[in-house]
Write a structure and sequence with these properties.
With about 180 residues, the chain is of the alpha/beta class. It contains 8 helices and 8 strands. Helix content is about 40%, strand content about 20%. β3 (about 60-65), α4 (about 70-75) and β4 (about 80) form a beta-alpha-beta unit.
Length: about 180
């Protein structure tokens, strides 16, 4: 299964040193295929992104930037993770040969992301996650993966290996988490 780490300043800090150190510690404990720098508020995002991308390269992890697709190529990131409000930009982003992961919270949004050309979709939240909408659950994940096979990564409230297994059984090709990778 694809493993997709997503950072959060609450757990990774917002300094180059804290992000780098936490990534190295995490990579010692977990296999990580993709990692997303998710920090919507730091004023030093570009400096954080540069350090994040270099560290991911050293760890053989594909670096993904969250939302800031205009900086993805310039900074040398592998791809971008987009919210639903940015789906219409996917064709433009794909022209730049940038890998695109799109957030979806329903079958309609997942179909829309695929229509525009997303490479993968995170379907979320699957399980309870603080400060997020009501969980979709495994049945809804299966409904989406049945219609869109080989594209869906489960996200939201994934903290245990047993949850990863049940997401895989529901058809997800991978899992994404913030907190799972910190244990």
């Amino acid at each position: 299964m694809i493993s997709y780490l997503i950072t959060d300043p609450k757990y990774y800090g917002n300094s180059k040193q804290s992000i780098t150190a936490t990534l190295f510690q995490t990579a010692k404990k977990h296999k990580i295929d993709y990692a997303c720098l998710r920090d919507k508020n730091s004023e030093n995002y570009e400096d954080l992104a540069k350090a994040f991308i270099v560290t991911c390269g050293e760890l053989n992890i594909k670096p993904i930037l969250h939302t800031f697709w205009q900086k993805t190529s310039i900074l040398g990131a592998y791809g971008v993770h987009l919210s639903t409000k940015d789906f219409e930009n996917i064709p433009l982003i794909k022209k730049e040969n940038i890998f695109v992961i799109a957030s979806a919270h329903s079958l309609k949004e997942a179909n829309e992301a695929i229509f525009f050309g997303a490479d993968f979709i995170t379907v979320s939240p699957i399980f309870y996650t603080p400060n997020k909408n009501k969980p979709l659950g495994l049945e809804k994940l299966k409904e989406i993966t049945d219609k869109i096979p080989n594209k869906c990564i489960a996200l939201g409230g994934i903290l245990e290996n047993s949850q990863i297994r049940t997401c895989e059984e529901a058809g997800a090709i991978g899992y994404a988490s913030i907190r799972y990778f910190l244990k």
